[in-house]
Design goal:
endopeptidase fold (from Nostoc punctiforme); 1 helix; 46% strand; globular
């Protein structure tokens, strides 16, 4: 999606998280903002595109499919698994 707008992002999520404008509250997120998630060691290892402040488009870790799930201040809540699968670390905006 970002390539369509001539915006080049680095390949990996932890690299992408170093760019853009930080959004401090999920309620302030807009469509197209990226949400980043970390593992137990604090390493950013997952990213998704926010559709609004409570819905996210992201690739699943195990099935390799792109899904739409719910998100809250704690992270992603899998619609299929009915449980939290990723811990929210930060939100970034790349377009104004």
């Amino acid at each position: 999606m970002f390539k369509l707008f001539n915006y080049k992002l680095p390949r990996d999520a932890y690299q992408q998280a170093k760019e853009g404008q930080t959004i401090h509250f999920l309620m302030e997120a807009e469509m197209g903002d990226l949400a980043f998630f970390d593992n137990a060691n604090g390493h950013i290892n997952h990213v998704g595109i926010l559709l609004n402040h409570d819905t996210i488009l992201h690739a699943t870790d195990t099935a390799g499919k792109v899904v739409i799930d719910k998100i809250d201040n704690g992270g992603i809540i899998s619609t299929k698994l009915k449980q939290r699968t990723h811990n929210l670390r930060l939100i970034k905006r790349y377009f104004n």
